[in-house]
Each structure stands twice: as structure tokens, then as C-alpha cells.
Design the sequence.
């Protein structure tokens, strides 16, 4: 299969997943159940694994391992993104039945935005090879910063630039307008004018939040592979499962207390791999194993900590 055919086939699969998600399974505004969210998350993960197997078959063993390593990095970083989404929806009191619409269009915007960022990254790497060291240093610093602030992020709405920009340049129709992003309202002069709703502001905040996370995740993917198809496809696979994974998190939100230190370790490792690429060639198989091991340890430590907390609470009694 040629590269063009791979891009075309991948585009068809992504379009099919999006159509199934919006046009068939979620045509009406409603709250997704935990069971549905887990099922759709399983579908997205299965599609990602199937793509990884195809990449392994078409492009070879190294490319296959690069895909799975990049996908693990992107999916892990996406989980941290979801905690911020929870804060945004809570701050604006967005009903569960409207959150899917925001996240769906957020995913559409993320696909386009990440495609542009990856294209820029490929251009910079090909024309300015030293940019790899900049990416590597950026990831190490991001990892250390994440480790330093290991607590869950705090959302300060009044200081959020997206909120301030929208309110300054666009008229906002306050109140409950259902799932609409824009509405027509009567102005003081009696004319009907368009205005954005609070749900539109939420969408803008979700998009800008994803942009900030993409600035970490895309250099991390380039730390694993320089292949544009693998970088983009692993990003898309992680983003496609983001909506359903959010609802799993929203239902089960659960104290993954060691996830952020795990993310910090993964970012630092990938950044170090980029910085040392001309000195020590770390095999992709070893990188995949290290990333998988860090993620597994973070999840297991979090689960073990929750179980200890429950036992301690039960032991104290009423």
C-alpha cells in the first residue's frame, strides 16, 4: 500500500467513526451512560490497535512500535486534558446532555489544529534540524513543571484569555439556550442580531485548552518518531477516544493520584531521548517498554492508593 493510499484509508476510517458517533449513536442531546462511554472507548481503542497492526504490517516492525509508543504517549497526555474539561463544564454548569456536543465539535477542531501543528513541526525538523533539541528541552522542562505541580489543575475563569477575548469581541446571549452555539436576539433598537451563547464560550475554552496540551503532546510524538503519518494518526486516535473517555472519567472520576507524576516521567524521558538522539540511539522497542511501564506503574499505584484509603476508612468505622 502506498503512502497516499494509507492517508486515504485512514481518512475514511476517521470520517466513518465521526459519522457513527454523531449521526447514529448521539443524534439527540442526552447524557451518555457509563456503559455507553466504556463501550465507545473500547471501540476507539480497538480501531487504534487495528491501525497499529496495519502500520506494523505495511511499514515494518519499527514503524509499528513507533505508532504504539506515540499512541500511548498521546492517550496518556489526553487523560490529563480531561481533568481540565471537567473543571470547565463544572464552572459553567453545562448539563451532561450538552457536553457531548461541545466535545464532538472540540474533537473536530482539534483534528484540524493538530494537523496544522504537525505540518509545521515536520517543516521545522526538515529545515532546522537543531529544533529537535529545542523540542527535547521543552519536554524535559514541561515534565519537571508537571512534577512540581503534581496536584490537579485549578481553573481561574476570570483570567482565562479565551473567555476575555470572546466577551470583548462578540455579543454574548446570557441564559440557557440549550445546545445552541449561536442565537438571534432582539437588540435595543428592535432589530434581530446574532449572539454567541455561553455554550460557545465553553467550546472556545475547550479548544484553547486542547491547543495548550497539543504544544506538549505533539513534540512528545516527534520524540518517538519523525514519520508524519505516524505522528498524525497516533494523535487522531487519541483525540477520537477523548469524548467517550471523558464520560468514563466523569462517571468514575476517581483518584488517579499518581497519573501526573507518571506523565511528568514520560515527558522527561521522551525529551531526554530527543536531546541524546545524536549521542545514544535508544531503541524504539526499549522506549515503548519504558513508556508502557511508567504508565502501568502510575495506574497501579493510584489504584493501590485508593484501595488503602478505602480500607483505612472502613477500619475507622462510623
Sequence:
Amino acid at each position: 500500500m502506498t503512502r497516499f493510499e494509507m492517508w486515504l484509508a485512514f481518512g475514511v476510517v476517521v470520517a466513518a467513526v465521526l459519522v457513527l458517533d454523531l449521526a447514529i449513536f448521539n443524534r439527540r442531546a442526552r447524557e451518555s451512560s457509563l456503559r455507553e462511554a466504556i463501550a465507545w472507548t473500547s471501540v476507539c481503542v480497538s480501531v487504534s490497535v487495528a491501525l497499529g497492526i496495519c502500520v506494523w504490517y505495511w511499514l515494518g516492525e519499527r514503524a509499528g512500535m513507533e505508532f504504539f509508543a506515540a499512541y500511548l504517549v498521546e492517550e496518556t497526555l489526553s487523560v490529563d486534558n480531561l481533568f481540565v474539561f471537567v473543571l470547565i463544564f463544572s464552572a459553567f454548569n453545562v448539563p451532561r446532555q450538552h457536553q457531548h456536543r461541545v466535545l464532538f465539535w472540540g474533537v473536530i477542531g482539534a483534528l484540524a489544529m493538530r494537523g496544522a501543528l504537525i505540518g509545521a513541526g515536520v517543516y521545522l525538523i526538515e529545515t532546522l534540524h537543531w529544533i529537535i533539541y529545542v523540542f527535547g528541552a521543552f519536554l524535559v522542562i514541561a515534565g519537571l513543571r508537571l512534577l512540581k505541580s503534581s496536584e490537579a489543575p485549578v481553573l481561574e475563569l476570570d483570567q482565562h484569555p479565551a473567555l476575555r477575548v470572546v466577551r470583548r469581541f462578540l455579543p454574548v446571549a446570557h441564559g440557557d439556550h440549550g445546545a445552541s452555539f449561536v442565537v438571534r436576539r432582539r437588540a435595543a433598537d428592535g432589530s434581530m442580531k446574532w449572539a454567541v451563547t455561553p455554550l460557545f464560550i465553553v467550546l472556545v475554552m475547550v479548544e484553547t485548552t486542547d491547543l495548550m496540551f497539543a504544544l506538549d503532546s505533539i513534540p512528545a510524538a516527534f520524540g518517538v518518531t519523525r514519520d508524519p503519518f505516524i505522528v498524525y494518526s497516533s494523535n487522531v486516535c487519541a483525540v477520537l477516544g477523548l469524548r467517550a473517555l471523558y464520560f468514563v472519567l466523569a462517571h468514575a472520576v476517581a483518584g488517579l493520584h499518581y497519573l501526573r507524576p507518571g506523565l511528568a516521567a514520560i515527558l522527561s524521558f521522551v525529551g531526554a531521548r530527543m536531546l541524546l538522539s545524536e549521542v545514544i540511539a535508544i531503541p524504539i522497542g526499549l522506549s515503548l517498554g519504558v513508556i508502557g511501564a511508567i504508565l502501568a506503574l502510575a495506574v497501579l499505584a493510584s489504584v493501590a492508593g485508593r484501595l488503602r484509603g478505602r480500607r483505612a476508612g472502613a477500619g475507622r468505622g462510623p
Notes: The chain has one domain: 3-316. The longest strand covers residues 182-186. The mean pLDDT is 78.
